Each structure stands twice: as structure tokens, then as C-alpha cells.
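Can't paste images in this forum, so I'm doing it all in text. The chain is below; anyone willing to post the predicted C-alpha cells underneath?
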Amino acid sequence: MPLLRPSLPRGFTLLEVMVVVVLVGILANMVRLAVGDGGRGAALRDTARVLQQLTRVAADEAMITSRPVALILGPEGYGLQRWQEGSWRRPGTDALYRVRRLPPGMDLRVTGSDDGAALGSRVPAIFFPDGNVEALGMELRLLPGERRARLLPEDDGYRVEFN
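Text version of the structure:
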């Protein structure tokens, strides 16, 4: 008569399954943190900083050229224009006055006004040669989502706040 061997349990114990689930969860979070939002948060920060620096340069440009300089928002993007011959114009081929496009999935709105229309040929800031500034706030948003940067007027341009 052959010897009967006790049958060994097949499969995994509950403890082993739980350990694997926890390890997979930790690895998934590490990958999510490494990838983040696909660089969109960095694009928001970079675009807000470009706008901030552009307004500071505009304030300097107005004093140097002795002509008002405005930040203009339009359907094609945003940029600087100088007051010449009774209207806002982009002078020649000067790179400072070129149109800058927003990255895909980003929205720029004027705040502090009644309409807050998105990129609707608005003039949120005018910098005068005497150093005075007329400015409204702006909000840069990632779409869809709640990530945004607020650009708040100051004497020499804008201050940026992120949320």
C-alpha cells in the first residue's frame, strides 16, 4: 500500500496577496509622482513667469522709448504693442513685440473687470513713460482642472501667485 502524502495547499495566502497589493500601490504612486501632470504644471509656471517678465520689460521699454507700451491679449495670443500715430501697433520686426502663443490647454483671462472675457482683444496693462501703470489682474488656467496662476498688478509689472 502506497504512503499517502498530506496535500499541500495551493495558491496564495491572504497575507501574501495583501503585501503584493500594497507594493503595487506604492510603486504606482512613485510613478505618478515622477510623471506628475505630464509637465503641464511646469508649463503653467513657465508661461506665468514669461508674462510677469514681459510686463517688467514693458515698463522699462515705455520709459526708454518715451511712449506708452501695452500688453495686448488677442485670439492669436498675447504680446506688447507701442502707442504710435494714434493707435496700438507692433513696431517693425522687433522680437520684443512679437505675438506669444499660449500652450495648448491653457486659458488667459482678465480679472478685475466686468466681463473677464477670454483672450478677447483686451488691454489688461498700459505702461506709461513716467512710470505710471494702469493694470487689471489676469488669471492663467490649465484646462480642464483647477491649476491656475494669478497675475496681480504691481508698480513695475505683475506679481504671480500659484494655487
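DSSP finds two helices and nine strands in the chain. Helices lie at 14-35, 40-65.
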